Amino acid sequence: MIGKTLDHYRILAKIGEGGMGVVYRARDEVLTRDVALKLLAHSAVDKVAPGHLLREAQTASSLSHPNICTIHQVGETANDFYVVMELIEGRSLSDLIPPAGLPMETVTRYGAQIADALSHAHDRGIVHRDLKGSNVMVTPEGRVKVLDFGLATRLESAEISELTLSYDSLESKLVGTLPYIAPEVLRGQKGDHLSDLWALGVLLYELAAGTLPFRGNTGFEVTSAILREPTPPLPSSVPPGLASVIQRCLSKEPLERYQRASEVRVALEAVQGAVLQSRRPSEEARGPRMLVLRGMEHLAVKNGDVLLQVGTNKGAFLLRASRDRNKWDVAGPYFHGQGVYAMAYDGRNGKHRLWVSANNMVWGTFLRSSDDFGRTWTNPVEASIRFPAESGASLKNLWQISLGRSDEPEKLYCGAEPAALFESCDDGESWSLIRGLYEHAHRPRWMPSNGGLVLHTIVPDPSNRERIYTAISAGGVYRTDDGGKTWCARNTGVRVMFLPEKYPEFGQCVHKLVLHESRPERLFLQNHGGLYRSDNHGDSWQDVARGIPSDFGFAMLMHPHDADCVYIVPVESEEFRCTPEGHLRVYRTRNAGGSWEALDRGLPQKGAYETVLRDALSTDSLDPAGIYFGTRSGKLYASRDEGKSWKKIAEGLPQILCVKAAVVHLNGFPVAMPKMKSKTANERKAKNKKRVGRGKSH
Amino acid sequence: MQIVFNIPGSLREFTRDQRAVRVEVEKGANLLQALHALFLEYPGLRDRVLTETGEARRHVNLFVANENVRYTGGLATPVPPGAEVSIVPAISGG
Fold first, then answer.
1. What is the DSSP-derived secondary structure letter of residue A443?
2. How far apart are CA B9 and CA A692, in angstroms?
3. What is the ipTM metric for this complex?
4. A293 and B CB contact within 8 Å
5. What is the pTM of this model?
6. Which of B46, B53, B75 to mutate to test the interface with A (most CBs of A within 10 A)?
7. Helix (H) or strand (E) holding B87
8. Domains along the sequence of chain A with CATH
């Protein structure tokens, strides 16, 4: 062919050969420019009606887009069918993919350009049908050009079966195409814009991972992988945000894919532009910071008062009583209509700060605080707790707000859904994700429980700054001994009801975990079925469910002064999840789980089918200790004698999700503590004095 | 070109109590670009309208003119000059 002339194109050199035909560099003698001229193989043209192919190519020539190789002319001579195209100096994308894949920034940049090209063509009714790496060129400037729009022949079902049988031996023009064919096309449907999006998913996978997602030695193997096998996991170097875009393109069911190429482009740009998006606006642009609630009667809290923070699924309530804990004032609801799963009171270092996680079903979850017992609340312009963009996760809810150790008064932790631990070292001003746990190798095998995949319990070891325990539903207990860098599952001996293996390394649905600061090596655990104690920092667990009506429950509370005393509220069976036989009873052990006693004086013992959720049981630090709990039916009970007798202090509240009690020390001065009996209590008193001393000098 | 955003009551705290705000965007902009222009002016809206992954929150409906963008290409929906964009909380509850 070299030297010959077709119409006014003089063929200069052969530059490529593919299934569809041979490509030459040619000279347009009229416009005096070089072009690419593709001479289509007879076989390709013969498969379909030549008139049809010509029409499709003519339609494709109407496309004008920076990422689409422009078709200048389509023609026919007596013997040949040819397409004259823009000559692109560059390399085929399939030649650019290194074995370990391209850098993520490059994948999203190229991917967004390809998606934009598809979007432009699809909007004009043109489907590519043969998108693959060898049909995409990359110019030296990094611009992507998609070739051969509208030139692919339609695959007939006979061809597919031929291809399937002869993949390994046949030099079929389709060999390079098969791994990109969508499942519905393999089943005989006509390829459409959604099968182009599948091919885009295969290509993105290949760019990111360096290998094709569906492979095999024979056509049959490739076909069955496409039809039946789940997409193999991408390497861990691929950010989850990009991985989820690829996964969605590779949904076997076309309607579960993105429905438009433009959506893929936007999703890729979001992954790509995440860094830009997450930049913080200047301080001037921050806008209002405080929400002032007018027209509500707020609490007048005095030094030494007991404060109860009550979170419900429709807002937060605050209660106060003087130290006799006899009469309670109620204020609220704060955060009207929002789910309040976590609250905390931070009285360290002279602070008296209330923390709330407010979950608005529409506008998201925000961490908010008040330094004046609810009169004003911060309302952050930006969410202070957020997943890094490259994680591909977004915050659903905050289930726990925990204070750091007393010698780290500016440290706070938050437990999130999806399961993650966040840490703040500056009193909640800024937060960071603890990556050691978030990127734990077990994560893909944690299973969401009824409430989602949630990190709901955070227990810093009071004697060791490097050690923290967390509990995840359903993942189990995880402990770090190096300040959060690495985490190990600590579930030996804890039984699982819902897996075939009853004592796995992890996967337990732990509901609550407590320890006493005087015995940091000893932990108690309320499991989703099972009550346990560990005497060795969680290395192993023993069952301590003796003499209780059910070992199922959510809430668990450590006595503030007695390390052997733990409270629980058992509920009947996994299915029922209400207090057994209509008796509302708190159970207490005073010998570290050796035996349990029912505490029910003042609690309803008939028709009381109640549930106390995992954070709805709390204690103040007075002596005798006040114990408080709230029910899913909106009743709030208090005991001022360590559980011997109870009194209902509120009812008719929305579903109670959390109760947090605290004694308020205003102006940094501790309240004179009542005379204490136990040694532990006296030790605590001494410690309190010391702490306040530090606070003053601060 | 200018675009008008209609702001629901619960977010007006972040638009200095304005129920409609105007922002300047390039001609041919899509909804995502228009939203970024809005967020530069009123940063409190961003995390309440979009998630960290840059998608519209599940119960936030966005309308270009009177069409819910869920059916017109999501955040890639083009915004014609002078169009009104409405941010509307979905019907939901529990």
1. G
2. 44
3. 0.93
4. no
5. 0.64
6. B53
7. strand B84-89
8. 5-86 (3.30.200.20), 91-277 (1.10.510.10), 308-331+547-664 (2.130.10.10), 666-698 (no CATH)
